[in-house]
Amino acid sequence: MKDLFSVKGKVALVTGGSRGIGEMIAAGYLANGAKVYISSRKAETCDATAERLSKEYEGNCISIPADLSNLDGIAALVSKIKEDEGSLDILVNNAGASWGEPIEEYSEKGWDKVMDTNVKGVFFLTQKLLPLLKASGNAEDPARVINIGSIDGIKTGLFDAFSYGPSKAALHHLTRVLAASLVKDHIIVNAIAPGPFPTWMLSTGVGSGGDVDIDWSVVGDTNPRGRVGTAEDIAGLAIFLSSRAGAYTVGQTITCDGGVVASS
Fold first, then answer.
1. Which of 20, 144, 169, 227 could be 220's S-S partner, Cβ–Cβ 3.0 to 4.6 Å?
2. What gap in Å lies between CA 261 and CA 264, rounded to an integer?
3. Can 29 be counted among the known catalytic residues?
4. Apex CA 172: angle with CA 170 and CA 176, to 5°?
5. Mean pLDDT of the chain
6. What is the tens place of the pLDDT at every residue in 204-224?
7. 195 closest CA partner among 132, 254, 109
8. Contact predicate 239/7, CB 8 Å
9. What is the structure's pLDDT at 208?
């Protein structure tokens, strides 16, 4: 029963890891002894986050900027990982996009951006990283894939982001499909469906224009738990799914939302 939640010595890739939920998960892994690669589209931000997290947690966080909404960006990321690692223990597919417009004006550009990033990118990145995941996983300690969905893929969202919820619902089902296919290769696939967290994406929805340094109690007061999520909440769940404690949990979408879905 010792070390049930240990991820020490594991190698993880967290996409969209330069801010928000991805950064929270990356920090949790680093604080508990994992080596972590992070990626995001903006190279300067990704590099700065990796440097800051490495110092803060006295760990090894490596930046690999990439646009994962297209196959060229995915290929570049995979190529870089393969240069440095012979195996990959944990893949967190967190990179995501949203697009808000009134339904009468909702654009094909917005629809495609969200679907390409949130669904297509997840599938093809996982596909291209299968050799590294297979090299890591075994019967006693499978490799892990964690897809970051959303409660908006379970219930109707609050904002006019008409492709976002459907993309996350597709991701939840993709999780089950991948889990059924890959479990025989000692690769476990699960998903987390977060609720409100103090992130850039949610801040744009509540009208602060990307500023996360706001009074989140306005959002938290409407949550059954009376607050928004914290880094410990999301990182703790990711660590559970990545450790011995989660080795028999397969193909699930687990909410991390303070009770929003249960109360809706």
1. 227
2. 5
3. no
4. 110
5. 95
6. 766 566 677 777 888 889 999
7. 254
8. yes
9. 61
Residue 39 CB partners (closer than 8 Å, separation 6+): 13, 14, 15, 16, 17, 18, 46, 63, 64, 65, 66, 68, 77, 95
pLDDT of residue 150: 97
Tokens for 204? 């744009």
What's the mean pLDDT in 148-175? 95
Six token digits for residue 160: 């006019």
Regarding beta strands 90-93 and 143-148, do their DSSP bridges make them parallel or antiparallel, or are they unpaired? Answer: parallel
Residues 6 or more apart from 84 whose CB is under 8 A from it? 62
CATH number of 11-263: 3.40.50.720
How far apart are the C-alpha atoms of 211 and 119, rounded to whole Å?
27
**pLDDT tens digits for 31-87?**
999 999 999 999 999 999 999 999 999 999 999 999 999 999 999 999 999 999 999
- Of 228, 235, 238, 141, nearest to 191 by C-alpha is 238
Q: Domain spans of the chain?
A: 11-263
- Note the pLDDT of residue 203: 74
Residue that has been written with the tokens 């706001």 in this structure: 214
